[in-house]
């Protein structure tokens, strides 16, 4: 009986020692993976290997010890986790010399030639709306730098496309539903393969962008970009590509006078008169003038005057974007063929709408109030509004595919009603009645025009020593005559003075000539 008690105490002591040692081993293994010491990764990794070897030895001894003891407990799950971590660490495979693929920069490099571009035209700006604008000219030169003699080039092309990217497409994760490309023009500078000499070769290009095209934009629903892509393909070697994005803007002319609007807010007698500019620009401030009349009313029954006092004013610039997300041929809904074509086209897209605030401010003071009487009481305020400094914006746009971006200015005023005895405006009493007055004004956000002259309105160059009109001609002269033509040539100045002296035109195709010229002509005819 005593020996059984001794064996029981000895086995329990061994099991406790095994559990304590297992916990210590697990703590040693977890220590190198602690994220709190990022600067000691190299040392901790070395310690993992040293600990792992000692751990394996201790595990072997502990396993042998547990096999000899019949009453020893089963190994702890912490020990199994330690074995798994050590096994995974020693069986990790790495391939430092293996390179999969090639970067995009290396794919377009060629040591034998390079492509560069220079834009010679002014900034691309459409003046006027889509119906009236004459477009913009884009011109420049492409430079193909050949670094070897007699280098064979198969083709050299350039393309200008309009890239429309839908940020909320018809079908998510579909490339064709997200991106739509429209080719404007394509240049083929080398119609056939050519062996080019060493040096820089210039290739000029030009294109007239129509005024109906949309301007570049990057909004919450879609983005429009003009992408210019160039590709030179040699006979031997990698092709050379060059890509550039053109920034196309539209400028609308502002009116000469600010717009005047009058609003009435029934059932009150408040009338607001507002002067504001209809066309604003992203950079700079704009001025709005507001005058409120009818804010006082006489109550003859109790001999008091009721006032509407302005407590708070908020202005807000809102941008509304609308677009139609088209569907590709794969995801287009199938409709019966008996429907009209317009109805089928309308169902091939989903309309998207988004509204965001690009400028906002709240005022609690800054206006002039006059509450002297019931007839001449008024509130006047002149405020400045502009776009937020860090807010993203999109100028007004209207495209043929249904995309549209508009802006509006919202004015919100909070007024409260008060009353005071006639002749005692200082004895004011609150009535507890308040109203919110809102006004919306259509506003056009556009880029500044700069010079403001389109390409078709530019004046041609003026040269010196050139008269303002073509030279005058006399009667038809017989060149085959004996006298010849040398006797009938008159100076240009004499012809001009004769034209100024005689204003009576000659019948037919004749023009007025001087008297000396007429005498010479008559003598020659005789």
UniProtKB/TrEMBL annotation:
<feature type="compositionally biased region" description="Basic and acidic residues">
    <location>
        <begin position="328"/>
        <end position="340"/>
    </location>
</feature>
<feature type="region of interest" description="Disordered">
    <location>
        <begin position="325"/>
        <end position="352"/>
    </location>
</feature>
<dbReference type="InterPro" id="IPR014752">
    <property type="entry name" value="Arrestin-like_C"/>
</dbReference>
<dbReference type="Pfam" id="PF13002">
    <property type="entry name" value="LDB19"/>
</dbReference>
<feature type="region of interest" description="Disordered">
    <location>
        <begin position="28"/>
        <end position="47"/>
    </location>
</feature>
<feature type="compositionally biased region" description="Low complexity">
    <location>
        <begin position="513"/>
        <end position="526"/>
    </location>
</feature>
<dbReference type="InterPro" id="IPR050357">
    <property type="entry name" value="Arrestin_domain-protein"/>
</dbReference>
<protein>
    <submittedName>
        <fullName>Lmbr1 domain-containing protein</fullName>
    </submittedName>
</protein>
<feature type="region of interest" description="Disordered">
    <location>
        <begin position="491"/>
        <end position="526"/>
    </location>
</feature>
<dbReference type="GO" id="GO:0031625">
    <property type="term" value="F:ubiquitin protein ligase binding"/>
</dbReference>
<dbReference type="InterPro" id="IPR024391">
    <property type="entry name" value="LDB19_N"/>
</dbReference>
<dbReference type="GO" id="GO:0005829">
    <property type="term" value="C:cytosol"/>
</dbReference>
<feature type="domain" description="LDB19 N-terminal">
    <location>
        <begin position="162"/>
        <end position="332"/>
    </location>
</feature>
<dbReference type="GO" id="GO:0030674">
    <property type="term" value="F:protein-macromolecule adaptor activity"/>
</dbReference>
<dbReference type="GO" id="GO:0005886">
    <property type="term" value="C:plasma membrane"/>
</dbReference>
<dbReference type="GO" id="GO:0070086">
    <property type="term" value="P:ubiquitin-dependent endocytosis"/>
</dbReference>
